Amino acid sequence: MNKNYFRLIQNCKKIAVGILLAVGSVGTVSAQLSGSYTINSAAASSSTNYTSLAAFVTALNTSGVSGAVTASVKTSETVTNNVVFRNISGVSSTNTITIDGGGFRYSSSVANEMGLTTSASNAEVIRFSGTDYVTIKNYIIENSNTSTNGRIIRFEADANGNSADYNNISSCTLQFSARTSGSTSAGAYVVFGSSLTASITSPSVNMGRFTVIKGNFCQNLRFYLCRCLCGFW
To answer: Most exposed: 10, 51, 52, 103, by fewest CB within 10 Å?
Structure first.
């Protein structure tokens, strides 16, 4: 067989394999979220139902949105991971994300980062890292860790300096369930700051702007921590 002809056949095979791999990759890309969804651990996972809050947030972080998104929580959760909202592509003043907790509880011991086995430093249950236009309402958000550094929610800028803007926490219950002592320097219900171990910091960029926190009930925390702290605004 002619050597050049042999090389041509081999190259064609490589190209064909490359095309198949590319098509396979395209087929696994998740669509952007838009419309109504549920978060229900008692139902099977589907295109419109996520079995955990972490699964829903992971989908937002990975796929982004192409329209307004609403998620209705249908069951309570008791978990060890925190939840981290990141810089979600496609969000805007019209392409907003709303999570209605429906009075259910999300309780976390905050032992590890969402999707990882690495430690979350016993910090916040929910973190907004460069996240915009997310509303959480009617949710009981509980930190069940005993750490004095514990928080419920923290807003921070991401690694690229994008601050967490235009977010809304309303009509929620923010609570600690296992604290036996307090800290005046680290723990709080809500923090705007970059540190896992200090509530008051002086970062060089905004942590969060135009965020509304209203109508929430803070409970089950004695000592010094009934407060919302802003490290920089």
So the answer is: 10
